[in-house]
Predict the structure of N-acetylmuramoyl-L-alanine amidase.
Amino acid sequence: MLGRRALASLALAFAALPPPWPAEAAVTDATLEASGNGARLVLTLTGGTRWRLAAATRPNRLVLTTPGSPWRGPASLGAAGPVRRAMADRSQLRLDLLRPVALKRVEESRGRLIIELEPTSATSFARLAAAGRPLAESGTATASNLGRSQPGTTQAPRSPARAGPLPLVVLDPGHGGRDPGTIGTRGTQEKRIVLAAAEELKKVLEAGGRCRVAMTRSNDRFVPLGDRVEFARRRQATLFVSLHADSAPGARGASVYTLGDSSDALAGALARRENLADRAGGLRLPSVSPEVQAILLSLMRAETRAGSARMASLVVEELGGDVPLLPNTHRQAGFVVLKAPEIPSVLVEMGFLSHPGDEAALRRPDHRAKVARALGRAIHGWLARAGTAEALAAG
Ligand SMILES: [Zn+2]
């Protein structure tokens, strides 16, 4: 005979179970509507329906599949914004596109899947399609699940638009004050060009409404490199973008830098520090043993590097359509401003003031605006699939 205590545990166990007859896994409803210059797709999912969204070209389309779960929603959804039409068939929905799109927001909660699309460049879309992996899918399992109480629970992909404040992007106009940076042959000062470009980019991002923006300097003052990194860390920035237009003999075109091999040496040095706990405290790691902290820190650094690399490739792709690029456009180097362990960081050389052609271009507001729009697209693209480092830092 079961004791009172055992019965109570059993009752609790049953209370935690799903209803005895779980709903069939299916898509039971769907709507598609224009939203701004994009579109919003809302699906009603039952019974833990799994889904996957992929992009394809020729013609440009998105395909949402729900493996093993039938489509019981409307067979077609008509046109909306960049979507020419949406047709459902068995366990997939196909969105034929008038214009290339990117994911703006994906949110899944209580049986509702919301997918928001926004316009993007044809090259961006082609790249999404060529990457050969889903743009988003249900139950995305990543290192960010570490330490969570319920590993294996279905989790919508991280989206910057989830509840809470918008992610913060820190823009870092290089040089300033007594440090003019490079001075071009026509006397153009790098510190002025990069500040003007950063202000332009800030406008683009604020108009997009998908992130907050802070600048390490917004006037002509000197800011030490370490302070720029600390500025971003104190504010728990999601992304750090440093802007420069330096000199390089004979070189021309834009390029982008992420932290090179020295990042591993830094990680090693960090881990050896006796005050690891203090360091980690600054990173808001959960309170766990020093060994586990070291592992989390190294995971975080790996995620940060991956986030930086992803941002760099988006920058190359978005700038590439609009401005001349330096060959081997994405390079690695030990820039001090790229060394925040938890914040994906890139340094963009918008061109070289040492090159008369680049100098002439960078002096023109319309050229800087073009660069800012391209960087804005890259940042929006990056935010649409927010870095896991952010999840770890918040975990
Ligand atoms: Zn510079």
Remarks:
- The domain at 168-394 is CATH 3.40.630.40 (Aminopeptidase).
- Residues 174-175, 181, 190, 244, 246 surround zinc ion (CB under 6 Å).
- The longest helix spans residues 290-320.
- Confidence is low (pLDDT under 50) at residues 1-22, 141-162, 262-285, 387-395.
